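User: Can you recover a sequence for this backbone? Please restate the input before giving your answer.

Assistant: Of course. Working from this structure:
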């Protein structure tokens, strides 16, 4: 079970985008990465013959970021926290380590 899921508010804790926050849109568990809009921007130089629209140029694209560089935002304090798992009834739920608040809303 992953500690970061789609829809989680996360903060980048390592790298060039350190300190940026966003909401996870897609998680790639096998690659260990996640797509967070506004994080991982890079510029790609494309020749006119290769581009789909026939025009070259410099395109700004986002690439997925490693899950190890992300921290879940604590719902109570708004600061980054680790994630714990706890058995609640017959379900396994995620809990913020700092405030012991439930992260899963479903």
């Amino acid at each position: 079970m992953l500690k970061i899921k789609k829809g989680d508010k996360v903060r980048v804790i390592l790298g060039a985008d350190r300190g940026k926050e966003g909401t996870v849109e897609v998680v790639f568990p096998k690659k260990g990465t996640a797509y967070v809009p506004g994080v991982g921007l890079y510029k790609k130089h494309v020749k006119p013959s290769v581009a789909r629209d026939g025009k070259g140029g410099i395109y700004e694209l986002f690439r997925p970021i490693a899950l190890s560089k992300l921290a879940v935002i604590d719902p109570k304090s708004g600061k980054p926290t680790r994630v714990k798992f706890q058995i609640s009834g017959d379900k396994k739920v995620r809990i913020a380590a700092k405030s012991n608040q439930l992260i899963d809303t479903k």
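That completes the design. The CA atoms of residues 47 and 56 lie 5 Å apart.
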